User: Fold these one by one.
Assistant:
Number 1:
Amino acid sequence: MQAAVDVQGQQHPIKLYLIVWAWLFILSTCSYLIDYFHLEGYLRWSLILLFMILKAGLIVAVFMHMAWERLALAYAILVPPVLVLVFVGIMGLEAKYTFLTRSLFFGSGS
Amino acid sequence: MADVTMTDATMKLSSEAASRPEGLRGIASDWSSDQRAFKSASWGKAMMWIFLLSDTFIFSCFLLSYMTVRTSTVVPWPNPSEVFSLKIGSTSFPLLLIAIMTFVLISSSGTMAMAVNFGYRHDRKTTARLMVLTAALGATFVGMQAFEWTKLIGEGVRPWGNPWGADQFGSTFFMITGFHGTHVSIGVIFLLWVARKVWRGDFDQGRRGFFTGRKGQYEIVEILGLYWHFVDLVWVFIFALFYLW
């Protein structure tokens, strides 16, 4: 019986998954090399974030089929986490302030 | 002739797909007035996505608090490369176990994606084998994480302190990896359960499930795949933000 009738099971060629799979390994290796080569500072952080976003994007778009879903679903799922970044920003500021006050009031100077 | 059940959304999709607007217009049109909003996804798939969104919030909160705690402590944070290195013979390999764990989980995501593909082709045996392989890789991951925990606890890491630096290291580590490992374990159980259904031909015969009493379909493999890829996704973030940073 032909399986192609399942419209919901969009048949993408296996090759697509294998290519993405290979890229995930490459990007993971790159991430590991950041530590292996002892990269530091902004270079380290920007590369960590870059490879993380690329891997996440590939997994969500291809493996989880988001690239083929209608935008109504895609936006409903992907926009809220972007708002979480606002939370991250707020807590980043808060944490730095806490660090500052701890250094000032509990540091060896005072 | 009556192939596996086509859901409501599928019927509508095949007959009306051409008339649905795309892009931002499509968003407005899909969401507006009294209708089912997600045209390209069945209720099962939509609900799994929504569940994953809620789980994203949970893990985001954990990672966020880890960031807060690490940024605000005046005591230096332990160096992850040193803490998580494996000693083989006399050489220390930084982050070796973590690299292997990442490799294992990415492999499992690949086998899961292939299982979904074969599931829609109704190739029962291959699908079931790939799902069991995915579960095996997942179980391997949890085993390695358990080994990691044992090693660290043996070295004196506690939620309230550790030999190397800021006290909060232990609590954030155990909380984040513990929740993730639990998610992986639950995924392994589900994978084995559904693999058994696929192997037996439940989705071809319309056999009613034990828990819900409903007939399933191969889409369940895809929905489970969404959960599994999410688990891999969370690891991508944990690996980058906790171990590498």
Number 2:
Amino acid sequence: MSRESIESSIRRYVWAVESLQPDPARLSAALAGAEDRTAVRPAARRRWTPLAVGLACLVLGGAVAGAATGLLDPAVDSFLGGGNPPGRQLTGEDVPSWLQPAPDFNAPSEVSVVAAAGDERLYAYRQSGSLCFDYGDHVGECRSPWEWRRELEAQPLFVRGPVGESVWFGLVGAGIATVRVEYASGEPAEIEVTNGGFVADIDPARSPQRIVALDGSGEEVTSRSLAAEGR
Amino acid sequence: MIEGSELSEQDKVTARVFRANRGDLEAREWIAERAYTAGLRLATFSLGDPNIGQDVGQEVAIRVLRGLPKLRDADRFDGWTYRICAGEIKRAAKKRQRHEWHPYEDVEHELQVEATFPQSLGERDWLIRALGELSERQRLVLGLHYVYGLNDKEIAAAIRSRRGTVRSLLSRGLARLREQADEEDDHGRKTRREQDKQEAMQ
């Protein structure tokens, strides 16, 4: 094959590559994901630091690596430690179509619904050693248990969104019972946390401002700005 | 710095990096989209899968946004982003090799790949396989040259390398592609000869 034909083949290929555009939902998730680590509030950091130091001491003291730390919701912690996916286990037809067994597809053996709101569901499953969370039928993330533990232990309120119309998905740390969505106008909405996760169908028309994680007594643990997302 | 039509592309990038670091949300979104697009296109070029490209694009955008306050020279934003892309592409390729990457391998996924590359299947598959045989640096340099239209001097500045090294990577990369095409042609001719022989014997 001549240099010219190789180049023209590459150029046809590149023409297709140049037409690709970022997925808007994933771009928004990237903006939110970047903020997750940079926008840690000082109070929250202070609250988690002694626990982190305690954890480090335990590890240095010869405790089992990767064991439960108390920072995570017990259902999520168990999943990260090798247990079943948190929440209601799905079987047969209830398993979402993209996770159903198919030729040349290593389908997960156990899929669960962690939390739901309307038709939107937060799914969890294990696949070839990775742990995955799917945010409805929009997008999903698979990482190693270690990577999830590092990510989730760094923040008691982990959120992804908005996907679809205006849905936010999240995982929360131990002791968080509800999340509250505060709007610029009107009453806030409270969403119950189930199995360490939640799905929040947010009303974009009322300009959501903050999502707040609350403990069992209704005390604020931490929060995330939603105004930054422009929704 | 005032943004206007008289500003060069580089000035616009630099201005937005400054603004994003001062908390300007619009600039931050612009930066995220630029980084995401670079990751998406360079990864799809290197690995031949737009779904993995989207994964890489998202990771690159996150890493760029998180690292932006530490970027000392805003003029070097694009080069810095390309280097992050190279790292993420490497990671994605390793994950795929170890079967730890799980794009949704269903009909929709296949259709998306097909729709992205309208050229003939044989040509596309050959090219993706052939690019996979090149070194990471060769793929990155080819991607920057063909996808972003950068010349050897611009690539050298972007990846902090010497111009001669970039020229060598480009020419060796193309030479390796040609060698593979020749090997493929030879293999095709041999296979056809064997088929002819078998048919004659029958």
